[in-house]
Design goal:
single chain; 2 domains; 4 helices
């Protein structure tokens, strides 16, 4: 068996290694960074678009009307949405229990 010899770094080997490395140019690095940033923004907008729109709507309405962020407005919204929330929980239980039929939808429509 031949013993493999380690290559002693010489000036020629160092030059070959230096020329074989490809260093990206500054322009390509900037293009990658910009396209990567645009993709991150696109993913955020696709996944969280409705939440971002909802937050912008809340911010706008809080400046447009003086009583939007008041306690009485929150109580009013809670009272008005509680009926639909209770019906939605009941409908969810029916669907989870696999007991859905046409009468459940009719009862839901009549009770709303």
């Amino acid at each position: 068996m031949r013993e493999q010899r380690k290559k002693i770094p010489t000036e020629k080997n160092s030059r070959e290694r230096a020329t074989s490395l490809k260093v990206p140019s500054k322009v390509s690095l900037i293009n990658q960074w910009v396209s990567g940033g645009a993709e991150v923004i696109r993913k955020i907008l696709l996944k969280g678009g409705p939440i971002i729109a909802f937050l912008f709507l809340i911010i706008y309405l809080s400046f447009a009307t003086p009583h939007f962020l008041s306690v009485s407005n929150f109580l009013n919204i809670t009272r008005q949405s509680s009926i639909n929330a209770i019906l939605a929980v009941g409908q969810t239980m029916v669907i989870i229990g696999a007991g859905i039929d046409l009468s459940v939808g009719a009862v839901l429509a009549l009770s709303a």
